[in-house]
């Protein structure tokens, strides 16, 4: 009996060593898979899909998993807990972003003939100006691992709250302080901003969805490991 158990154990070890199951990546020290710490987080990693301003999956996004610094993850966990009392939760569109993705955005901005997602994401902006207008950054906080793009959802329905403009809409209506939105939309942006600021994130005036941890652990490092 004992011998049979040890043979089975041996086979299991060999099988797991050569298993074809996709393995999660070993992350650099200080980074974590966010959903391990916040399992009820809704994730819609837009750059892993074609539903983004480029109209295509983005380089470096090899899997639909959310990665952040451990420090930013703990702060985000508090945000999610505080929102629960209001019947709200978070939906996240982007977190850590590899430098190769940022580089690919730069290449994309120079290809004037490629406008497949213009109508939806940047109808009134010339794509070659998106960096100068601060809708994109060559040195992005996302690449430092403590910046996140997110919105609020109603916990009962799972529906996103109305913020007056969609995620990654490049236009002045996405400025936090725009006068182009109604009182409800303004209030929804305010709820998100207040809970993020309460948890040591700072806002980004040009994009209501973008927040960076104030005391970020890697303020000078632009990482380039792929998301998988
Ligand atoms: C593209 C948008 N989601 C974003 O994150 N923009 C800022 C400015 C960035 O690229 O860091
Ligand atoms: Zn962002």
UniProtKB/TrEMBL annotation:
InterPro entries: A_A_dipeptidase, Zn_M74/Hedgehog-like. Its EC number is 3.4.13.22. It catalyses: D-alanyl-D-alanine + H2O = 2 D-alanine. It is an enzyme of class 3 (hydrolase). One of its GO terms (molecular function) is metallopeptidase activity. The record marks 97 as: Transition state stabilizer. Zn(2+) binds at residues 142, 149, 210. Binds 1 zinc ion per subunit. Keywords: Cell wall biogenesis/degradation, Dipeptidase, Hydrolase, Metal-binding, Metalloprotease, Protease, Zinc. The active site is at 207 (proton donor/acceptor). It comes from the Bacteria. One of its GO terms (biological process) is proteolysis. Belongs to the peptidase M15D family. Catalyzes hydrolysis of the D-alanyl-D-alanine dipeptide. HAMAP family: A_A_dipeptidase. This is D-alanyl-D-alanine dipeptidase. It comes from Chryseobacterium fistulae. The lineage of its organism: Bacteria, Pseudomonadati, Bacteroidota, Flavobacteriia, Flavobacteriales. The gene is vanX.
